[in-house]
Each structure stands twice: as C-alpha cells, then as structure tokens.
# Entry
Amino acid sequence: MNSRIKYKYLHILSNVTYGGGEQVLLNLCKNMPKENLLFLLRFSSRVPELINVSNKSFLNSKNVYTSYLDHLYTFIYLLYLLFSLRFQKINFENIVLHGFPCQYSLILFRVFYPKKNLFLIFHQIKHKHNNLKIILMFIENLILFFSNPYIGAPSIRALESIKSYVPKFCRNKFKFFLFKNCFSFIKDSKESNLLYEKTFKFLNKKPYILTVSRFEDFKGHMRLLKFIKRNKLLNGEINFVFIGDGKNYKSCMNYLKKENINNVFLIGSHPRENLFQLYKNSLGVFIPSYEEAFGVQIIEAQTFKKPILVFESSLIINKNVNLIEEFSLNYSFKNLIKILEWKNIEEKNNYIFSTEETVNSLDNVLL
# Structure
C-alpha cells in the first residue's frame, strides 16, 4: 500500500459479502484509485487484489452477523485497525465509515482525528426501537451527537428513516446527504452460461422467479417460503430459485424438507458476475426483504427489464416494482404472470450512478 499518495477518502467497511455496498467501494477503488483507500474488516476471497484495498483481516466474510460474539470480534478488529492507522504513515483527508460496527467507534475516530471530516454511511433502513432496545437507540444517537459526522444513505427512503431515528431537537446539528451508489452492469460470460445450464437441469422446463441475497433475518427468505406454501405455489407451473448463503440457509433448507416443498431451489452463493443468464431467463425477481436501503437486486432486475415482487411498499421505486400482500391466500401462477408484466415507463434511471458521481456526492457535502 503506497503511503506516499494522499488519498482523498479512507473507507472502512465490515460487511464483505460482495453485495451492493461492497460493489460500490470496489468500483471506486478500481476506477478512482488515487482518491479512495479501502480497509475491509473481514477477509473476502472474491475481492480483487488492489494496491488501495486492505483485505488482510483474520475474520471470514462468510461468518458476518452470525452471532453476538461475531459482532464483538468485528468491533475488536475495528479498534485494532483504528489504533494501527493512527501510527501508520498513510495520508488521507477524510474518513468514510460504512455501517455496523463503525457507528459505535465514531467518538474514537473523532478523538484520534479531530481535524478530519468524518462521514457515516448507513446501508440499511433504521427503525425506532421499543422496550430495552431504546437504550441502544439512545447510545447510537449520543455517539452521533458528540462525534458530529456527516450522515449519508444510498436511497431517499433510507435517509428519511435515519432522520426519523435521530431526535428532533438535534437533527439540525447534522448534515444529511444522499450517498450515490455507483453501479456496474453484469456482463455475460462463459461461467454465467455454465451456471444457468446447471440450474436449468433441475427446473423441469418450468419458468422461475429469482431471489438473490444472503440468508440474514432482515432479508426475509423465510417469509417468502411461507408465502409460497400458504398460496400452494408448490408443484404447479412455477419454480423459485434462491441464490446466496448465510446464517439462515440451513433453517430454510430444513423448512423445505419439512413441508415437502420441491419447487424451491437453494443453489448457494455465486459471484455476481456469473448471474447474467439467471437474471436474463427469469420471469422476474422476488425481494422479500424487510429493510433494504439500496436494493442492488432491484436495480439489477431493472437493467434486465425484469419486474420485481416485494412485500414492503418502501422498496417501490417505480411501476415495475409490485407490492404483494404477504398474508393473502389468493395468489396463483396466473396471478403472478399478470403481475410480472414489464411496463414500459419513461423515466430517468436516477438510481444508477457513475463512480465520479459517487465521489461527488461526498465532495458536495464539503462545499
């Protein structure tokens, strides 16, 4: 890592699952290497070797968010990184912290770097807490208040949720801004064709709806499986293909076996660049998530002109994102086919940005 370069932005990210947030930061580091320096709190074998990306953590990205102990390990490594950065000869102007557990270390970063501009990017929707979790909300807001960062999010709905999360009396203290996630299109490849051919063999020539995300609680895989069972979308005319892995993968697999659901296929995690043919040949994409901030799968589906099904109205970005009633018993294959008709709408794709626009979204905050 070149210590002579003065980087404009030092980024720190923990959730290395090669999804939307990781894609953005790696694009920044590849396309604008003199401006962006990235430290990953978890090692990922999928991250390319770049001179301005530190991918040396002893924590495995596959274990992210699996237990409270795992959260603790991540935070300890973050503290280690903070102290080591303080004594390394690395030049940078601004610090950009991305999501958990960075928000809990803001005060330390402010103490260690009192003259640096400090950014915090929330990559998830924030919800007001009840019961004992109110204490957690109080701690987070107290840290925000004393560290005084610029607060960003990759979508308007996520930004509004953060504003609502912060008490009214201190909202004016912060500068909120839209962090424009740069996006790169998936291209066809030999690997993409091989993955599709392998998957097609067990689909019994039936069409399928695609779901792409890691198996975490807030991604909503189980609610989708129960929806499929509830509406008896089982051995009829449609398949569901789930791509990803994570802590809930086994519980979803066990549910399929228990309920004898044999038209839902969990095919594990695959590199994003290998999904071209699976996206292209799908009927559409189902995103059962509770709280996507950006929803890279929504954007990817839109680029393939594939309609999207969601359970949350907050995920709707245009008329090709269709709200499904989660507890309805009235959905059939014919219903879904009708809903999954692509609507030709004239509107600017203002959710697809370049790397320059992503950096400019940070630059403009400082003007």
Q: What stands out?
A: The mean pLDDT is 88. The first helix runs from residue 20 to 31. The longest strand covers residues 6-13.
